[in-house]
């Protein structure tokens, strides 16, 4: 890999921040012009309310359980103005049903905290690869192996990539043509990672 990356940090483990948030207030679905919604706790009621919040530009949701994911992703797909998205799994939960993820076309920054369901990673990263505005990706606790990491390399427009406790392999290999626009790469907490090439 040539020196597109100007910052590379392989450091000690980070402490996981527990999934925290606040319950959605009653009547939130009536706020149809809302543009920013941060740290809402996932619940069946919250996921249903999302269908009306199509003007959101920034959305961050916490305590997401596997049973929420499919409907959550469908709701996110209706947020066509969304530029920043953060999804934090509930403690010891997996972000599943990634096949249902409908990538908002203007998405610029994506934060995913939690293990990612392996069987649908190809579809998920293929959907992300079509986003020309996606410049920033942070994965925390994703448990990617080398095969799963290969799918990340299709994200050609990334400028900043952060992998925190996200990689479970022992070697990361970056072919010369991968991540052509990447400027910052941060890797922390790879317990088995011995080599980056």
Report on this model:
This protein has 197 residues and is α/β, with parallel strands linked by helices. The protein has one domain: Alpha-Beta Horseshoe (Leucine-rich repeat, LRR (right-handed beta-alpha superhelix)). Helices cover 17% and strands 26% of the residues. It has helices at 44-49, 66-77, 121-129, 146-152, and strands spanning 7-11, 36-41, 58-64, 84-89, 94-95, 109-113, 115-116, 136-140, 160-164, 171-172, 184-188, 195-196. It holds the Pfam family LRR_14. Residues 23-188 form the Disease resistance R13L4/SHOC-2-like LRR domain.
Number of domains: 1
Strand content: 25-35%
- Low-confidence spans: 1-8
Give me the side-by-side strand order of the main sheet.
1-11-9-8-6-4-3-2
Mean pLDDT rating? 86
Number of helices: 4
């Amino acid at each position: 890999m040539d020196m597109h990356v100007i910052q590379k940090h392989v450091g000690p483990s980070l402490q996981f921040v527990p999934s925290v948030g606040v319950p959605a207030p009653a009547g939130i679905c009536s706020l149809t012009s809302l543009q920013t919604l941060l740290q809402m706790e996932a619940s069946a009621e919250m996921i249903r309310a999302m269908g009306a919040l199509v003007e959101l530009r920034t959305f961050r949701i916490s305590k997401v359980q596997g049973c929420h994911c499919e409907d959550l992703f469908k709701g996110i797909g209706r947020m066509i103005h969304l530029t920043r998205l953060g999804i934090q799994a509930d403690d010891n939960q997996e972000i599943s049903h990634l096949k249902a993820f409908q990538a908002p076309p203007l998405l610029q920054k994506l934060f995913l905290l939690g293990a990612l369901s392996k069987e649908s990673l190809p579809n998920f990263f293929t959907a992300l690869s079509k986003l020309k505005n996606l410049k920033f990706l942070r994965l925390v606790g994703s448990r990617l192996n080398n095969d799963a990491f290969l799918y990340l390399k299709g994200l050609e427009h990334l400028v900043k990539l952060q992998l925190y406790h996200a990689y479970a392999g022992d070697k990361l290999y970056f072919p010369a043509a991968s991540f052509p626009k990447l400027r910052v790469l941060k890797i922390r907490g790879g317990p088995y990672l011995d080599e980056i090439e």
